[in-house]
Design brief:
The protein has 83 residues and is an all-alpha fold. The chain is built from 3 helices and no strands.
C-alpha cells in the first residue's frame, strides 16, 4: 500500500447503512428499517387478503408507516442546534 492510499483510507471511512456519521451504530435507523419492512408486509396482506373489514389493515399499515419515518425526522429536528 502506498503512502497516498493510506492517507485516503485513514482520512475518510464511509459510515454503513445503520451507522451514524461518527461511526456509532444507530438503533433509530434499525427501528425505522424494521418498521418499513412491517409496512410492506402489512400493505401486501391488506391488498391480497380480501376481507370485509380491510380498514383495520389500513390503520395498522399507516401506523407502521408513521413509526418508520416520524421518529427519525423528530430526532433530526431535536438534535439541530439553535443559532
Amino acid at each position: 500500500m502506498t503512502d497516498h492510499s493510506q492517507k485516503n483510507e485513514t482520512k475518510r471511512k464511509r459510515a454503513g447503512f445503520f451507522e451514524e456519521d461518527n461511526g456509532n451504530i444507530s438503533s433509530m435507523r434499525l427501528m425505522s428499517f424494521i418498521a418499513l419492512i412491517a409496512v410492506i408486509i402489512f400493505g401486501f396482506l391488506t391488498i391480497l387478503l380480501k376481507d370485509g373489514n380491510a380498514s383495520n389493515g389500513i390503520y395498522i399499515t399507516f401506523g407502521f408507516l408513521l413509526a418508520a419515518f416520524a421518529p427519525k425526522a423528530l430526532q433530526k429536528f431535536a438534535e439541530t442546534k439553535v443559532k
